User: What shape does this take?
Amino acid sequence: MSSDRTAFEILIREHAGMLTAYLRSLCDSNDIVEEAFQQAVIDSWKALETFDRTRPFAPWLRGIARNRLLVLLRARGRLRKRLENFEQLVAARFTRLDRLSGDTLPERVAALQECLAALPEGQRAAIDLVYVREQDTHTAAKVLGLDWETLRKRVQRARQALADCLRNKGILAEAGT
Amino acid sequence: MNHENGNHENGNHENGNHENGNHEHGSHEHGRTLPKPDDCTTDLAHAAPDFSILDAEPGAADQRALEALADERVVHGLLRVLAPGEAAAIERRVVEAVIAIPIDGSISKPRARVAPAQVAPARVIPARVIQGRTARHRAWLASMVPALALVVISLFLARIATTTTPVAIADLPSVLEGMNKAGPRRYSVSIERDGTGPGAMREGTVDIGPGGRFVARLGLPNRAPAQISGFDGERYWIVPPQGPVWISRSRELLARRGELRDSTEMLIVGRLLRKLESGYDVSIDPVRQEDGTLRFTARRNPEISGRRGEPTLVVFEARENDRVVTRLEATWTSKAPTPAPALADESPRLPGLAGRRPKRLAFTLLESPAPSGAWFRPETHIDPDRAFVTE
Assistant: This one.
């Protein structure tokens, strides 16, 4: 039992980064993401005997997390009309990300780092302030000498540029695929 | 600089995928400047891609917009987990989740007064009733877990939906999110416990940083700080008046050895509010002040037996523009339960405070320079010759 738990913990730790990224792709609430993550881990432990070990673990774990997330959102009356359909689009992208090699999350998403390095200076600075230095957008806008709306748009354009870059590398699915 | 994806980078025009072609410097966005406050669209700190198109009626024409949103949301999710502090947060989540799995396999869940889940459990999981309490909910400190914050939000929203204006409904989630996402800031703080004399009082400052980081510097009134404690994103630490510096990855360190014991995390404004768990019947009475702040009041229902150490009344004000809390006062009535007894008591503390009932806790936002990231590390606050003890 103890060794099973240890092995399970190692497995969860291996997938925790991508699972968190998946949940954050679908929800911005830290509270809901944290709760869905924990419940997904608990649920997956309970259901481990039902897991088909010939199949990859990550999509199975994501499926559990997906259901937990929907439960949490629906219980709070926060389930958006088309989130379940949207989730399929997101899940398809993470299925492609599952194929990336690497032992750690940064290794597996090294392509994203390459795309970040290729961003124009202004966009890269915005991403760096908001995501790496974790400055709120008001502070980031002040640092860059922009108004808040301009900063928001710049961050948005940077993310879209990163998505284009990842798509060009075959990592994100082409539209409609 | 390799200018890849040039269609996005040079002009001021958006690509129009789902923001309707707004100009970068425009702010009209069809009359809406901020995403709708919502449990899942409040990440203003990251200017996260807006989910609002998911509320639109399905139509084949917007499939491209959905695909583009999915791409951008995935990028957003990946960027979030690649942030420097996220590795420690992920590790904490893993540890907390694994700890929450009891040895006997019987899973428990915190008591909550929100409506039960209305959709089927995961397709791969046998349906099973989930009851009881997890290990992480046994102690006062554990009452600050995110699930309970959701309960608070739900209670707030359920309450204000019937008692206040629609404006208030939109305000509160953004206040809670503002506390999470605002940049580093400093509050003056005073803590009063039952009894008289200077021994019942502590005063000082609390600096709040991203990701739960904080530095609390507390001491007797009008004296230099006697004990400094904090969290640097990975380690909880305490610099007591004398003896070794304590460092741990577990926040229980603060309960065991901190000056305020289990009350230490009440020093984090956001966490204090999130403690208003299921033992409360929360009401919110938002009032717009002349200075543009919003005032909120949360009261504990006296008919409900509260958890140990929780305040009876919390009144706070938040700036209207960025939702940062500017003032907060928490009070305990004489009937409030005594906080849980301290655990091991090995650290030197100031006289007079230990064991007394909390009476009043007050914060005021200070207009001082925002602390840097290094400020939250213990090394910044100690003599390099002082001994460290890592738990």
Q: What stands out?
A: DSSP finds seven helices and twelve strands in chain B.
